[in-house]
Amino acid sequence: MNDAPPPRDYRQTVFLPQTPFPMKGDLPKREPAMLARWAQQDLWRKLRDGAAARPKFVLHDGPPYANGPLHIGHALNKILKDVINRAAQMSGYDADYVPGWDCHGLPIEWKVEEEYRAKKKNKDEVPVLEFRAECRAYAAHWLEVQREEFARLGVAGDWANRYATMDFPSESVIVEEIGRFLMNGSLYRGLRPVMWSPVEKTALAEAEIEYHDHVSPTLWARFPIVSGPEAGASVVIWTTTPWTIPGNRAVAYGPEIDYALVHVEGVAEGSHLRVGETLLVALPLLPKFAEDAGLGAHSLHRVLKGAELEGAIAAHPLRGAGYDFDVPLLPGDFVTTEAGTGFVHIAPGHGEDDFNLGRAHGLPVPETVNDDGTFTHHAPGFEGLHVFRAHEAVYAACETAGTLVAKSKLTHSYPHSWRSKKPVIFRATPQWFIAMDDSNAIRQKSLDAIAATTFIPDVGRNRIGGMVASRPDWCISRQRAWGVPIAVFVEKRTSEVLRDPDVMARIVDAFRSEGADAWYQPDAAARFLGNTRNPDDYEQVMDIVDVWFESGSTHAFVLPPRNLPFPADLYLEGSDQHRGWFQSSLLESVGTRGVAPFKAVLTHGFVLDEGGRKMSKSLGNVTAPQEVIAKYGADILRMWVMNSDTAEDLRIGKNILEQQAELYRRIRNTLRWLLGNLAGFDGHERVPVAEMPELERWVLHRLTELDARVRRAVRSHDWNGVLPEIHNFCATDLSAFYFDIRKDSLYCDAKDSLRRRSARTVLDSLHRCLCAWLAPVLVFTAEEAWTARFGEGAGSVHLQLFPELPENWRDDALAAKWAEIRRLRKLVTGSLEDHRRDGTFGSSLQAAVTLTLAPEDAAATLDAATWAETLIVSKVTLAEGAETSLDVALAPGHKCDRCWKVLEEVGQSAAHPTLCRRCEAVVGP
Questions:
Q1: What is the pLDDT of residue 4?
Q2: Deepest of 142, 441, 459, 889, by most Cβ within 10 A of its Cβ?
Q3: At the top level of its lineage, which domain of life is listed (predicted)?
């Protein structure tokens, strides 16, 4: 009969992790509840109150447009802003973030007009105030939709007191800013060619233009020289806009270009050239011209410099058909020999270079094109015809006049309206401009401000600098109804704009209480001009201001009025805003205040699909943030942003999101392991750093390195690489190394052992640091991990500051030593894995290792017991040798039923014959 006691079950004596923090995030369900709790706690107000005495940090929000649900680019932008704001707040600043919206302009007006068209109503028959009210309602609806969607992303901000360009106080300040330019003399009305959308019937800014391939008809035409040098010959021009021929008033040549005087002696079949005629074409372009025009045998009479053509007068190619005026040949420094014929036909109303050359030589600027793109009566023979359908008529007219040389087609990049996606034209119309180079010197002041601004990345400096250096005067007028009017008066008798501070003050005061609609009331002119002026003597300007001017002036009605510092610390938008909001904000602020409205400018890339293609509904490759949140949760979307290089274009799609979800699970598991092994921890367990084992002190050193990385990102606003470093720390330094080593001590050591208490002291610091560092990015998960330990009564993690780590945690020498230890450990664990695969043993705890260290590896000095902990084996024997080597064998002894180490001491205890000495002491009698 066997009297041996039955085997004991020691599982209940092991200190296994305990935590309510679940392994599964279930973010789509948990996040809305957390948002509701934050709202109920009024967390935003607590943040502001708690930071009231701190220095301000202001990231001024570039306003998104209120005309539809958010897209993935919106999510990227707002998440990046939120991370920077939250991190600044947790670094000891008062990061008061005021989100805003751009609510005026053509896209909203266009949508309301579409609703009219669907109802068979004519927008022009609707009273302007009624139309503006519908635009306001449309913008208000989408503003609210977007506000809820931004908040669902976890973006913290003063949502209750957001700004909008259509708010009455905003409209008041916008018109006041226009008045500043009026009073300092930089605002003027002039006739100049601007980008014009015939579809939308308004001028457009460069920022409202995008370029697409377009097939343009091309024309080669004769301009017979009727007097002056080379009379009797014909100049040949080439153009990709045949419709501009009715507006032609000159021909430009390059003074230093060599021109060939060519006598035509033979032509190809179908050519419009005539044998016996004499033509002038740039010499370098003659071979290509011969090919295009069907020029056969010819002789070169002579070569002359363009300057020799000074004083020559040509006939318009449509002479005899209502164009019976002379066309002078003029020198132009913009003429090149890159394409065409070396001669440029000049239509002063339809091109920047054309206009400038015409103005320099007193050429007329005929208004040949209406607002809708049809020809006016100033284009005889083409009146009522749309310019984009005029080429065949121009070809026919030239052929009738005997001036057609050739015609063709060309596919090239051409400007389109980014709203209607339709091609635009250059069209000279009376517009309102802000001068770049008058006594206010906006251009030079802006360039100086750019030099003094921090750009992240720095390449942005050259980009915006080049644009400002070369841009023309700022056209700020639009011929639409939904916006802030350029509220000025022009005296009819003198055509002079009225500059009266009292008039402007009355307008500003009215807009503040009534909004811009006050300008459209029947008695507006009399009301604002006052009793001393007759409204009949003045033109009330009805153009509205460019929406880029409005958004560019947001600093004026968001920062000082809310007691926020000016200039703002940071502007942050997509890289396309160097020509958009960054530039309009710079010009507006420099023009009115002499300084930039920002200290630093950060740009991010665009979002593409997984294959690097632009997203479009037609391709079916659109990733909607709403769908991502519904499936994965906002924290996964935020993680995608911060795991990306935001300075470049980002990619997103199903596979990339799955990868982010996997990375998230690793971080979540790290937090869960920490929480589980901190169960019951309190301050009484803490161990001073000096008494800790080296491994714990190494972990604290790593925390100081990450702390420095986070704080460097706060200072520079550059967060690229920070989250990947934190993830790598969790996955490599902690889960695969420190946790792997210390789980034995945490599970099996006595509760009050120095090693276990040291480990739990470090876990406490890890939890506090990781929750804080992750809080700006994984806003929901960090909160969950914080409250899982401390409870909701302890306050939100977002009310915390980043931990201040003691200087004595940093130990570069220890870090170097443990880098060597980890290198050697990798060699050993690789060998152990080979033995495990070979079936030598199933667990590394069944192994005994003899580690021979060469002199150069002697710096990695640990005692045998610590090496055994580090390698997670049951026994290590140390030796010295000429080369580092190791020998792996089965560990002698028996397996401990509690810690699973194989030790020779197992079996020596009468009370606990299946335990090692350590476990016996923990279990007790």
A1: 55
A2: 142
A3: Bacteria
3-state secondary structure of 207: helix
Three-class SS state of 373: coil
Give the model's pLDDT for residue 363. 83
DSSP 24: S
Which residue shows structure tokens 């007191």?
161
Distance CA 78, CA 453 (A): 22
The span from the CA of 177 to the CA of 187, in Å, is 11
Question: How high is the pLDDT of residue 407?
Answer: 84
Is 29 labeled as ligand-binding?
Answer: no
The structure tokens 């400007």 sit at: 415
Can you give the pLDDT at residue 5? Answer: 60
The alpha helices in 594-687, defined as continuous H runs, are: 625-631, 634-643, 654-677
Cα–Cα distance, 799 to 48 (Å, whole number): 10
Pairwise CA distance, residues 121 & 169, whole Å: 33
- The amino acid that residue 358 corresponds to is G
The Cα 4–Cα 27 span in angstroms is 53
Question: Is residue 617 annotated as involved in ligand binding?
Answer: yes
Burial of 118 (0-12, 13-18, 19+ CB in 10 A): exposed
Q: Residues 5, 11, 14, 17: what is their CA dihedral angle, to the nearest 10 degrees? A: -170
Q: What are phi and psi for residue 825, nearest 5 degrees?
A: -60, -40
Going by C-alpha positions, the residue among 83, 138, 17, 32 that lies closest to residue 726 is 83
Residue type, 166: M
The answer to whether 37 and 73 are in contact (CB under 8 A) is: no
573 known member of a binding site: yes
Check if the beta carbon of residue 906 is closer than 8 Å to that of residue 895.
Answer: yes
Long-range contacts of 177-181 (CB under 8 A, 24+ apart): 177/549, 177/553, 177/556, 177/588, 177/592, 178/476, 178/484, 178/486, 178/487, 178/488, 178/545, 178/549, 179/487, 179/504, 179/507, 179/508, 180/591, 180/592, 181/434, 181/591, 181/592
According to DSSP, the β-strands at 202-204 and 187-197 are antiparallel
Q: Is 919 annotated as a binding residue?
A: yes
How far is the C-alpha of 863 from the C-alpha of 871, rounded, in Å?
A: 12
Strands (E), 198-283: 202-204, 209-227, 234-239, 250-253, 258-264, 278-282
Any idea which residue has 């091309």 for tokens? 218
Do the beta carbons of residue 153 and residue 64 sit within 8 Å? Answer: no
d(CA 625, CA 609): 13
Q: What is the pLDDT of residues 103-137, one digit of tens each?
A: 998 889 888 988 888 887 877 788 999 999 999 99
Closest by CA position to 695, among listed 746, 631, 748: 746
Hey, what are 358's tokens? 């015409």
| 103 marked among binding-site residues | no
d(CA 593, CA 581): 17
**Starting at the edge strand that comes first in sequence, how are the strands of the sheet with 187-197 ordered?**
202-204, 187-197, 425-434, 474-475
Per DSSP, the residues of 463-532 read HHHHHHHH---EE-EES-SSS-B---EEETTT-PBP--HHHHHHHHHHHHHH-GGGGGSTTHHHHHH-TT
The full set of domains in the chain, from first to last, is: 13-22+651-810 (1.10.730.20), 212-418 (3.90.740.10), 833-923 (3.30.2320)
Q: For residue 723, is pLDDT > 70?
A: yes
